[in-house]
Every structure is written in C-alpha cells, then in structure tokens.
What does this fold into?
Amino acid sequence: MKNYTITVNGNVYDVTVEEAAEGAAAVAAAPKAAPKAAPKAAAPAPKAAATGAQGSVKITAPMPGKILAIKADAGKAVKKGEAILVLEAMKMENEIVAPQDGTVASINTSVGASVEAGEVLATLN
It folds into this structure.
C-alpha cells in the first residue's frame, strides 16, 4: 500500500493505493478529504533574467507547460503569427506566436523552464 497526498484546486486529499497482485486490477480507496492545511510553497525555480527592456505587448503562456525552444531573440523583428517560442503542454508542441508585427523586446524565460498559464514569456515593442 502506498499513501499519497494530492492537492486539486486547493483541496488536499489523502489517497491510499493498494498494489495489485499480478493479473489483478488495481484497487484504490476512495479519497478522504484531508484537513485544510496551508498549502506548502514549493521552492520556486529560478527564473531566467529578462533579456532586454520590457516591451509594451506581453506574450503570455496560454497553458502550463515546458519551454522547448526559443525561436526569436531580443531585438529581432517579427511579423504577426511568427513563432517566438515552442511550449510543450499535454505532450504536444505548441508554437507561441507574435500577436502583431513588432520587435522582440525581451524573452522572460529559458529553454527547459516550466511555466504556468498566464506567465509572461516575452514582450514586443
């Protein structure tokens, strides 16, 4: 038996999972709501320093994921729809594109970084 503590949308659950014998289906006990505890703050990953000055147009992550590639560096002129970053989310590679023509003012992340939805990834002028 293995015990896990899982947090879903701010609710903490204690879950016990029983390891099944070979050929048998796994059986999990119904989750029991754990007493509300203050969420444990994980040590934040160091953020990459923004390259260049911040621009007026913010490009944010549409969903949580991992940065696989940076396709445009600070100072590069980009057209509307041109890929700036590649974000891996739900086992799919998603190109994060420029919302308008402009110049990349800053890249606020790095390859391999985990990002949350709404986090500013880059800015344009």
